């Protein structure tokens, strides 16, 4: 996952890609450190999804602008619209099920 540091970068990323997952976390967050590799591993199955991450300690304004009040947080956008929002207690199998459903509907029609 690439780091982004501004809302403008995020907006451009979402506009230019059909599917984008945004991972909000922090280097100081133990849960974030444990979850991030699992999310990255899951995303290897979905090569058409662009993934980016935001460090909320470095870019707190991005968390605020996206209504992220707790970390870890995940936003998933399809065609510039938010489709999934998860935070704090994130189940990787649950989020993968949701993403897989959207992915297959979108790319395998």
From TrEMBL:
Segments forming domain Thioredoxin: 6-83
Superkingdom field: Bacteria
The name this protein goes by in its record: Thioredoxin
Keywords assigned by UniProt, alphabetized: Disulfide bond
UniProt cross-references to PANTHER family, sorted A to Z: THIOREDOXIN-LIKE PROTEIN 1
Pfam family, one: Thioredoxin
């Amino acid at each position: 996952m690439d780091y982004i540091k501004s809302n403008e970068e995020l907006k451009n990323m979402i506009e230019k890609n059909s599917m984008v997952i945004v991972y909000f976390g922090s280097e100081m967050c133990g849960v974030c450190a444990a979850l991030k590799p699992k999310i990255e591993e899951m995303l290897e199955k979905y090569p058409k999804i662009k993934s980016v991450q935001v460090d909320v300690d470095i870019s707190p304004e991005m968390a605020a602008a996206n209504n992220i009040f707790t970390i870890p947080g995940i936003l998933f956008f399809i065609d510039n619209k938010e489709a999934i929002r998860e935070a704090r207690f994130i189940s990787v199998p649950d989020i993968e099920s949701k993403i897989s459903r959207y992915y297959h509907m979108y790319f395998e029609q």
